[in-house]
Amino acid sequence: MFREAVPESSSLTALRKSLAVAEQDVRKKQEEMEELRSQLVNQDYEQRVAALQPRLITMLRVQLTAITNITKSRLLDQSINIGEDIKELRQMLDDVHEGDLEEIQKILEDTTVLYDQISRGIVFPSQSDSWTMTEGAVEAESDYSDEEEDSKQDSEWQAEMTAIQNTHQSELETIRHHYEHQLKGMRERIEHEEARRRKLQEELVQITTRNDQSLTTVKASFEDVLEEQRHGFQEEMEQLKREHQKELDEEKAATRLALEAVRRAHEEELKAAASRKINSDKDREGTRQNFSVMLEQMREELTTLSAAYSAKCIENAQLDERLSALMEQREREGDSEDIQRLQRDLVARDAQVAELQRRITAYELRGGDSPSGISDKDESSSEAPFPEKTSNNLAVKYRKMNKNRRTDIRFHSNPVIPMLEGVPEYLIEDVRRSLAVPVSERRKFFETIAEYSTPF
To answer: Which molecular-function annotations from GO does this UniProt entry contain (predicted)?
Structure first.
């Protein structure tokens, strides 16, 4: 079916191309005809102007020559002076451009005006009868001689006018024959172009008729091919729809089975997770109890160490006050031996305090490092290596400022037990809530111990 449609479509394309070419050819012929007509009109006009202009100029020169001869005769009134006008018209004829018919027309009008003036200014001599003459014989003879001269001039003028008329008539005949010949040629050319136009129009009508017939045939065959293709396409679409629906039903069944399997696997996973959660809750409860026991022991150790540390701090404060009192007394007495002895005692007490701090640090390291424990360790290590320097500068320091329990850092230090490693995640928050005491609360706690456990 498709193989049959291809030649028909190619033939339709060829017919369309041939029709388009024929239409273009007809349009070109029409354009050429219009162009020839315009050229014919323009060329005819230009040719007529080119042939007519020299004849008109020649005729006007002859007319101006005749007017000049008339002005020289005695027939024209002497009061009429047209010599300047004749010179001006001749100058205008010499300056006329090629194809300037308007200027020639103006010169012809001026020449006509000169003829009108001459016709009005001609004077005819009056004839006198011999019997009416009252003058003498001498006057009669002179008048007779004047009349003879005037008659001679009139005959010359008549002959010149006849020659001018004959020349003008010959010029007119020549121009008329020339234009009749041109008009005949133009008519023959127009008839030839008209016959060519009719022939082209008939050819166009024939080509249009043939193209219409071929287009009708091709259109009918093309519609038949389209109808067959449409039926085949509809059958293919129906078959594809049936196959698609079948595949869709199979895919739905497979998806249903897969969803059922996934649901069962998910239920089994939920059961396993529930059992794991129950076992982990049991393990968590046992770990919580063990950790609570261990936490209670660490709290007891922390309380013991805190009480010992507070006692040492109170003792150090008492020694500081005694040292300050003795130093003031020795300063008054000028004795320095007791000051040195007290300084040595103070150094020994500082060593004991450092030892306690190291023990506390050791307990902290058992449970894990923490920032506060590391800071106390650094504080103890920074105080331990320089006991002599502290004892040497102590007197000067007490002379500058007397320390008390409010300004001494030993009254505000508190060992913090860090988080233990290996503690389960679900117990970290409980440990933090039990041990994370603010610094201000720890400070108040030790200040209360320092103030009320042992009075200064």
So the answer is: actin filament binding
Beta-carbon-side half-sphere exposure of residue 54 (alpha carbons within 13 Å): 4
Closest CA to 448 of 416, 405, 386, 415: 405
Phi, psi of 173 (to 5 degrees): -65, -40
Q: Which residue has the tokens 């007509």?
A: 37
Q: Which amino acid is at 120?
A: R
CA distance 32 to 34: 5
Could you give the CA distance from residue 187 to residue 197 in angstroms, rounded to a whole number?
Answer: 15
Distance (Å, whole) CA 336 – CA 323: 12
Instruction: Give yes or no for a contact between 350 and 387, defined as CB atoms under 8 angstroms apart.
Output: yes
- In this prediction, residue 97 carries a pLDDT of 73
Q: Which residue has the tokens 């050791």?
A: 362
Stretch 149-161: mean pLDDT: 67
Dist. CA 45–CA 230, nearest whole Å = 66
What pLDDT, in 10s, does the model give residues 292-349?
A: 888 888 888 878 877 777 787 788 778 888 888 877 776 776 556 767 777 888 888 8
Cα angle 441, 444, 447; round to 5: 150
Residues 6 or more apart in contact with residue 287 via CB below 8 angstroms? 424, 427
DSSP characters over 101-124: HHHHHHHHHHHHHHHHHHHHHB-P
Dihedral pair phi/psi, residue 240, rounded to 5°: -65, -40
Q: pTM of the prediction?
A: 0.26
